[in-house]
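Entry 12.
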Amino acid sequence: MRRVAMWCALAAFLAGMPLISARPAAASSLVVTSERLTVASSSVTVPKSTVAVSQVAAGGVVNEARTSTATLTGGTATASGTVTFTLFPGGSCTGTPVSPGAQDVLVTGAAGHSYVSPARTPTSAGPYSWSASYSGDTNNLAASNCTPITVTPPAQATVVVSQVAAGGVVNAVRTSTATLSGGTAGATGTLTFQLFLGGTCSGTQMGTTESLAVSGAAGHSYVSAGRTPTSAGTYSWLASYGGDANNLGDTDCKVITITAAVVTVSQVAAGGAPNTARTTTATLTGGTVGATGTLTFQLFPGVNCTGTQVGSTDTVTVSGAVNHQYTSAARTPTTAGSYSWQVAYSGDSNNLGDTDCTVITVANSTVLHVSAITFVSSANQGNFWNATIQIEVRDGNDILVGTVTVTGSWAPTILASSRSNCGSVTTGSGTCTVASGTGSNGFGNAEPTQTWTVSTLSRSGYTYDSTANTVSSITVTKP
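Predicted 3D structure (tokens):
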């Protein structure tokens, strides 16, 4: 540069001075001729400085922000222009850049100056490449650099699956609750539940596999749908988390025990009079629909279901224990007193056995009541009409009682006394018939309805309890 400047100054100086030339004239003289020297001016091109771009850019983990640092070596200390940074998928700085694309950084010098790119966030693992392009300026040449980096998947968090699952009885719905501890709050993926026969979480499965969408680990809990074991034994719940990009999968096997159903035996058994056949009806509750086994019935004197039984033991085959009912064969106590029915269920593999002892009282009843009054017939007889009814009498054991005098009356009009009394009940039949009479002993046609009402029942050694009557009157209509 200094030589160029000196030549320019010399040319300018010489342009205004005469040119002196010497030539030999004669042997003894020198002739000097003066002429002006003209120097033609011309432009001089100065070469640009060469700039080299280098980058320092590290890889990293998916979804982490990354930057690149570009250094301009060579060039002038006052270099200007821009460095354009672009992050591309792949290792060749081509293709569609990572959003938001290229971005410029102003240059304030080359000769070792460094510039940091804006951050970019790769969203998937794989190779990437940073392009750093220096634009150049009047004194510095443009330059670029492509630097590859590698983005790796994130380190997966460890997830632990644990279950809380209780056993129970057969035919009861069971569930399991799985908790994912560790892992990330935003964990995704699926959690599957399976219930197996046996304690190894393998083999025969109860029902089908259930899949739940995971919406977080780090202490999140998930509840399975219900399963209903139908037989007693050992079962096992398998809960399996499949993991995701950020969380490792895990499984847990939880063993539960299903026990036989608790069966309750209850009875409905009534007392009665001596020499009257009695039965009992047993109901099984709480067991399974398909319960098997046997029921045995026994009737004992006394209240403790012990001693010498009345009759013999009878056995009934069980075909279900969900409110199923079974009736014993009849027994006939011959003397008054307390008796007790014992019913024993044997149980089966899925149902526990049970027994029940129910006390009844066998006694002669001395209390009478009307159990029924029924219409028999009616007929027209000229200016009169008549009607016939039947009365049924029973004791406190609900047994028909004979030789009872039944007294009652017709209303509203009484034309003959025979209408008010039917006399003695036929012995042993427990019924009597009341007729209104015939002809003028019947009802007049002006009496379209008549009501007969019982007033007393009488028999030696018995009392009449009107409050125990099933019915106390009957109304008949003129035919």
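Annotation: The chain has one helix and 34 strands. Residues 1-41, 416-424 have pLDDT under 50 and may be disordered.
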